[in-house]
Amino acid sequence: MAGSSASMVVALVLAMALLAPPGRADAITCSDVYGDLLPCVAYVQAGGSVAPQCCSGLRSLLAAARTADDRRTACRCLKTISARFPGYVSRANTIPGKCGVSIPYKFSPSIDCSKIN
């Protein structure tokens, strides 16, 4: 069962990343979020060390989320994926610390993204 859930995570994130338009639009989208964090999937699934590309993607996402609306959108995207794959939330929440960055929220299926500024 864990193997099929892991495969679903990879397939979902990969599909969302592939659907992302090239470059960034003015407003951040879930495709942007998933594309930036695609290199993190291996760590979220299996643990071990966080790939440098994962940290780069997280930094890219943080840089792109310039406005409160962007940060709320990113939060909602991560909330959605957290709700679909709750077994991976705990490990996903260790990524910012391992990358030495701070994000304004935790990965959680229950976070209130409207309170993100």
TrEMBL record:
Biological role stated in the UniProt entry: Plant non-specific lipid-transfer proteins transfer phospholipids as well as galactolipids across membranes. May play a role in wax or cutin deposition in the cell walls of expanding epidermal cells and certain secretory tissues.
Protein name stated in the entry: Non-specific lipid-transfer protein
InterPro entries per record: Bifun_inhib/LTP/seed_sf (IPR036312), Bifunc_inhib/LTP/seed_store (IPR016140), Plant_nsLTP (IPR000528)
Keywords, in A-Z order: Lipid-binding, Signal, Transport
GO biological process: lipid transport
Keyword hit for Repressor: no
Pfam families hit by this protein: Tryp_alpha_amyl
Electron transport listed as a keyword: no
Family statement drawn from the similarity comment of this UniProt entry: Belongs to the plant LTP family.
Superkingdom field: Eukaryota
PANTHER family, alphabetized: NON-SPECIFIC LIPID-TRANSFER PROTEIN 2-RELATED
Gene Ontology molecular function, alphabetical: lipid binding
Native organism taxonomy: Eukaryota, Viridiplantae, Streptophyta, Embryophyta, Tracheophyta
SMART domains assigned: AAI
Source organism: Elaeis guineensis var. tenera
Signal peptide: 1-25
Limits of the Bifunctional inhibitor/plant lipid transfer protein/seed storage helical domain: 30-113
SUPFAM superfamilies: Bifunctional inhibitor/lipid-transfer protein/seed storage 2S albumin
TM regions (residue ranges): none
